[in-house]
Write a structure and sequence with these properties.
The complex is a heterodimer. By secondary structure, chain A is mainly α. Helices cover about 75% and strands about 0% of the residues of chain A. Chain B is mainly α. In chain B, about 70% of the residues lie in helices and about 0% in strands. The chains are: A mainly alpha, B mainly alpha.
Amino acid sequence: MASSTRVTFPNKLLPYLLLAPQLAITIIFFYWPASQAIQQSVLREDPFGLATQFVGLGNFKRVLNDPNYLNSLQVTVVFSVATALIAMALALLLAVMADKVVRGKGIYRTLLIWPYAVAPAIAGMLWLFLFNPSMGTLAYLIRSTGYNWDPLLDSGQAMVLVVAAAAWKQISYNFLFFVAGLQSIPKSLIEAAAIDGAGENKRFWTIIFPLLAPTTFFLLVVNTVYAFFDTFGIIHAVTGGGPGKATETLVYKVYNDGFVNLILGDSAAQSVILMVIVIALTAIQFRYVERKVHYG
Amino acid sequence: MIENNPIGRFIAHFILILGIVIVAFPIYYTFVASTQTLQEVMRPPLSLLPGAHFWENYKAALFGGVGRIGGVGVGRLLFNTLVMALGIAIGKIVISILSAYAIVFFRFPGRMVFFWLIFITLMLPVEVRILPTYKIMVDLGLIDTYTGLILPLMASATATLLFRQFFMTIPGELVEAARVDGAGPWRFFKDILLPLSKTNIAALFVILFIYGWTQYLWPLLMTNRNDMATIVIGLRKMISFADADTEWHLVMVTSILAIVPPILVVVLMQRWFVRGLVETEK
């Protein structure tokens, strides 16, 4: 980063012109609305929108004491943990297997990466086609065993369905990063352990898995961000937060309170809370990257 | 290989094939459904082989117009999505490369302030400023316009950071040599920097194209008119379990049409895709 010694051009006006387009968009569409959200979060409008009143942290207090909000917080945590764990475990298994095979590596990779290109909302709809009780073939097979499968009515089953769709879409991303992580582990280490008589299982848990820790940790953060924010489409397209409020995640609730129920103060307070969560997650991610640069 | 273990390798192949089946099955199933008549789709279990109505269904969806979304054809939705994805990808690359160029190759008051202003947008995704951003779009009259779909998503800290990182690895001697030879900033940018950035641009393009194509929340807010919807939003509007008149076979066709273009981009540009993925996540 020795930027002070860089050779540069002497122009005075040009750099501002070069920066202008990005800054204009950033200020109009990022900073201006974000500051509005913060401002809105300490105000309360009367039901007719005639008068607004400063309420300090009142909106936050109400939101954080609202059982519906706490419910959606819990839903988000369950949903995110389940999605991240399943997507990462399956991807790790597949990556370890892909590392083992000699022939066909490229073909396997090509065939495993394409769900990345599927929009989350569409991933949700594909799973819904398979598992909805009125026409889904897999739902038909489940029901023919006598099990009462109906994710549109049963809240636990609805959660299973959205987690499956969200995890399915994320496997390819995790797979690529685990493959890269496995390739960076020195083969000599594994050979040495094999000579010492460590079996395959033991080698995996005592050498490979610990050495993958940076990759795993990085993916954990990325998957959490994905489950928190990018899965809005899945929830909106598949369950609409239902049945009841069983799959109402935080982002879905912000949208629902702001656009459907039109509770502006609460929606803004929720936005600000989400902002804090993003800042925390980004900070963790960047701390990790810094360490990787130093030690890796 | 540590020990020659044919059984282990066989198991590995088996698990990988199982993985591919899990990954591919929902897409394959949808494709099969897209080649059947409405009656066949509605009567599970579906056959595992494609039916005989491929051309009929695809022609009906692409050119005939789908009833539930006001008779708009899927061709129109695909066009909207393509415009949005290309607009976002190209727009982001252009404004990011320009601002990274300014930050790395010029010295001017406020340089670091601007850098941080761009950097912090990483922490402000649409989801956390959704209502006020929507209001601004309404005030600017950008609802149901391509500008409204594209412009706000064009600012990107990630792309700027990526270009900045790459530019900082370019040796100062190169800049010096260019200046000695009398090249101004524009010439240097056009004749040296752009050709050097080609791989980075390609990698970023793949990632951003997919990003634009798969957007959901933003087009959901920005479009009211059916003929301005993206294909993902249009698809969502077509589906209703409550109404009996959902044309499921056309829904399946639309799903396939919505996922094939980005999948082709990923598979055909795999090298740049993997590179872009790894590099933008730093």
